[in-house]
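#struct-pred
JK: can someone run the complex with guanosine-5'-monophosphate? inputs below
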Amino acid sequence: MRPEKLGILLIVSGPSGAGKSTLCKELRRKRPDIHFSVSCTTRPPRPGERHGLDYFFISSDEFRRKIGQKAFLEHAKVHSNYYGTLKSEVMGRLKAGEDVLLDIDVQGAMQIRRNSRKDRLLSRCIETVFVGPPSFAELEKRLRSRATESERLIRERLDDARKELEFWNEYDYLIINKRLGEAEADMIALLDVLHKRTIRLKDSGFYE
Ligand code: ADP
Ligand code: 5GP
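RT: done, structure tokens with the ligand placed:
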């Protein structure tokens, strides 16, 4: 018997440098059926980032147009740039039983959680995970060693991190990314166990 299911909407947040992208990449490698929701952003691409794979890199005008068209499930200003999750990346897939992975900031996560209270599909699919660093000093070290931002932007991200860290207990799950291998295993175990939840089963005729 293969019951019909809705997909999981796995929302991953945490301060910049905590290791979200690293953990999401490994989760996608080990569980390739999950769809990574590609966000729109007005920030410029980093070396190696590709349009349509990491982000849709768009202008502020285009971003505003998409807000007007109500194309976003959520959008927010994060570290001086705009970021938004496209409904088209998410809703149809969940309905069709496909899991969707979102790497978004706490403002975006809280917006979706709020909206999910009056949306039957979202309320059954949403699961939220906060990825935290083992310490603030380690977060700073990681941001510096990643070396993808200027000193000014690192400072800005660290200031924002202090505020973001206060939100950890708004999330369903907390993964502290201390030893990478352990945190990766936690993410995979979490996704596997979330597949067992009855809330996403389409219940008609399950035992007929
Ligand atoms: P985020 O997506 O949360 O901003 P990244 O995944 O880009 O963070 O990770 C920030 C930096 O820290 C990267 O250089 C990454 O390789 C490194 N990193 C991630 N996890 C760990 C870990 N457990 N221990 C040490 N370094 C890590
Ligand atoms: P980065 O610029 O390092 O890729 O991402 C900066 C922050 O923006 C991260 O916290 C990331 O989770 C968040 N982010 C990425 N895409 C989105 C999105 O679509 N919406 C929101 N609200 N945040 C996002």
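RT: quick notes.
The mean pLDDT is 95.
Residues 38-89 form a domain with the Guanylate Kinase phosphate binding domain fold (CATH 3.30.63.10).
JK: thanks, will look after standup
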